[in-house]
Every structure is written in C-alpha cells, then in structure tokens.
Amino acid sequence: LANSWVNVDERSTGQFTLSGIAAAPQDLIASRLDPLTAVPNRLILRRGLNLGAVATIPSMDFDAAEAFAPAQGSATLAGLGSDTAVVTTAFRGVGGRANGQIGRPAAYPGNVGTVAFPAIPISQLGNNELQQLTVTASAANTATSSRSTTVFFREAGPVTVAMGSAITPPIVTRLSGPYGRARVLFGVESPYGRFVTATFAQPSASRVTSILVTPGIALAPWDFSIPDLSDVPGWNSDWGLRTGLPIAWSVTAAGGQNFRLGTTVSDGAVLRTATQSGVLPSP
C-alpha cells in the first residue's frame, strides 16, 4: 500500500505535487490546521478516486459543503514511563485500504497522562470503515529502541492505550556467502509473538533487504537469516548486500490484530510493536 502526503502553508501558492501514490482507486484525506495550535479544524475525505499519472486533484475548499469539523477523542497513555510519545491518527477505510493521516503527529513528554486526538466523526464514516490511533514511544537519548501501540476504532472517545515493554536486543551476526547476509536470533516476548520484520540496509550502495517472518512453532525463538539464493536459477548475487560494507539493521516484533497478514481487523483491535536497531560494522 503506497501513500503520499504533503504539507502546504499559507505562504505557498496552493499548488503541490504528490508522488509515489498507490494505483487507483485512491482515498484522499486533507486537513486544515489552526495556524496557532496546528490542530485540525476542518477535514475533507474523498474516496475511490481514479487519479492517473500527472492528474490534477480537483480544488479543495475547506469552507465548502464537503468539508467537516473533526471529532475529538482522548487517550490515556499507560505504560509510557519516562519515554516521550508521538501520537498519530489516521483513516484506514475498509480492510486497511487507505492510510490517510489526520492532521500532524503530536509529540508529548513522558508521563503525560491523557491527551486529545483528532478523528473523523462517525457520521462521516461508511460501513465497516475504521480509523487508527498510534502511539510511538522512544527513550530519551536512545535512537536504537522504540515501541508502539495502535488501537483501531470507529467512533472517537476516551480510550486507554497500554504500551508494551521494549524487547531485548536481538543477536545479529554476519553470515558468509557471495553477498552480504545476516542472521537474527532472539526470544519471543509478550505481547509480540505475531510476526517479525527485519530490514538490512547499505545506503552507500543503494542496497536494502527486507524479511517478514511468522512463527512456525508457538513460542519458539525467532531464528532466521537472509537466505543464500546463489544456487537459485536466474539469481544475480550483485542484487544482494555488499560483503565488505557495514549493514544497518532494524528488527520489529509485532503482536495483535493487523492488516499486514490479511487478518480481519475490527473496532477495538490492538496492534503492538517493538523495534531494536543497530549496525554490523565492516568485517
């Protein structure tokens, strides 16, 4: 699912370009922000657009009949501790077909307690359409660890967002082969036993490898590697990571309901993730 967004301020011409969007049909959500508080005060939601390449989006007038005032909910952040939090809400549509951010992410200090968030009024939602509230927590002065909780909902209201704990950093090691490979090993930790994603990147060489893993045996340790495809017909080892360069890695464990694995997500569903990252130095 590809999506794109742009921020336009009062000093602009009102013209903008969106690139990298998904193929039609697309959903579009636009927010007008209060210039002093940066809180949305009007929203526009258009569904099922058929915008091809170099298409022009029909003019959006936040004072016209299609615009509406946002609803407001409140979220009590539990388990945040001293970590800072970023709170984001988004329109997800039916089956997660869209990911339209509502307003801007809002940042809060640790132990903030209860915060407000904008949402689409339920009167503006179609049958089975969902929204999501995501809280991402990061420890001060720590760029290698984060955790998030997403709550899916239809109608904005008071909600308690219970954050999971940080996961133990995985053991990430290099493997031999004709191209760069790595192995990831760590234990399953509650509540993150649904799936794991891992990304290995070498920006200087424009190389990225991503893996999604689901557990073959419940509660077994996560132990997976970038596969050796050198014997696969048609494979070119030059497509892989470079053997002599550092590898930046990021591993995310997830648990709960989510759209990524085709799971049916309903009102009140919760998805929790925790991420650890690091760098394998040059060998």
Keywords:
283 residues; mainly beta; eight-stranded antiparallel β-sheet
Describe the protein in words.
It is a single chain. With 283 residues, this protein is mostly beta strands. Helices cover 0% and strands 44% of the residues. The protein has an eight-stranded antiparallel β-sheet with strand order 5-4-7-8-16-15-12-13, with no helix packed on it. It has a three-stranded mixed β-sheet with strand order 6-3-9, with no helix packed on it. A three-stranded antiparallel β-sheet has the order 10-11-14, with no helix packed on it. A hairpin with a 5-residue loop joins β10 and β11. The chain is globular and about 60 Å long. The mean pLDDT is 89.
In short:
The chain has 283 residues and is mainly β. It is 0% helix and 44% strand.
SSE blueprint and pairings:
Layout: E1 26-33, E2 40-49, E3 71-78, E4 84-93, E5 100-108, E6 114-119, E7 130-138, E8 145-153, E9 158-162, E10 171-175, E11 181-186, E12 195-202, E13 207-213, E14 222-225, E15 247-256, E16 270-280
Parallel strand pairs: 3-9
Antiparallel strand pairs: 1-2, 3-6, 4-5, 4-7, 7-8, 8-16, 10-11, 11-14, 12-13, 12-15, 15-16
